[in-house]
Design goal:
The protein has eight helices and two strands; from the N terminus they run ααααααααββ. By secondary structure, it is mainly alpha-helical. The chain folds into three domains: 81 residues, no CATH class; 31 residues; 32 residues. Strands 1-2 form a two-stranded antiparallel ribbon. Strand 1 and strand 2 form a beta hairpin. Helix 1 crosses helix 2. 4% of the residues are buried.
């Protein structure tokens, strides 16, 4: 009983459904001088419709083509084909963007250690830049707009308590005197210090 494997074809000899025509159309889009990179091309279709076969026919034809262009550079050296299997990095704990960048970097001849330094290490650089007096004043206002009024209210309350204490506390009372080391008595000539002494009876 004959059977056909469900896999992509690798040559036009195996093409029984005309995928080579789509491969040629793909080549005309990619290698046309009218389309300046970067650009994206999508092959859309259901499962098993031949998307991978179209891609494989194009990449195999590119690798086997050593014909040179007018500039003297072979076609296979003017275009670089990189295959990335996204199905391997589909888990929620895997960073597919980082995996894609790593794969492309290595395929283009990049160094693994250099890649690690550029993509996996967080490099921090601090720069000082003067933003002008207006920005400085704005930042200063935002920083002090809340604590400064609270500080002024607290200072006013403190001075108010001191004033009330100086005016209404009975300074001749021994209990009041014991709460302070010294106090000043108001006279018409100014403030004079008053000392305290204790005698034994």
């Amino acid at each position: 009983m004959p059977a056909v494997l469900d896999r992509q074809i690798a040559s036009e000899k195996q093409d029984a459904f005309g995928h080579r025509h789509f491969s040629q159309a793909l080549r005309s889009l990619i290698e046309s001088g009218r389309h300046a990179p970067p650009f994206s091309i999508g092959l859309l279709g259901g499962w098993g419709t031949g998307k991978s076969s179209i891609k494989e026919l194009y990449t195999r034809g590119l690798e086997d083509d050593a014909s040179a262009s007018s500039s003297g550079v072979p076609r296979k050296d003017r275009f670089k084909s990189i295959t990335f299997n996204a199905w391997r990095f589909g888990g929620k704990d895997q960073d597919i963007k980082r995996a894609l960048l790593r794969h492309v970097f290595l395929e283009l001849g990049g160094d693994e250690q250099a890649l690690h330094d550029k993509l996996f290490r967080n490099v921090t650089r601090t720069e000082e830049q003067w933003k002008g007096w207006r920005e400085y004043a704005s930042q200063l206002w935002r920083a002090w707009s809340m604590p400064l009024p609270a500080f002024l209210v607290a200072m006013l309350a403190l001075f108010g308590l001191i004033w009330l204490g100086l005016k209404y506390l009975p300074w001749d009372d021994s209990l009041v005197q014991s709460a302070f080391i010294f106090h000043r008595k108001v006279k018409t000539t100014g403030f004079q210090p008053v000392s305290f002494s204790a005698t034994m009876r």
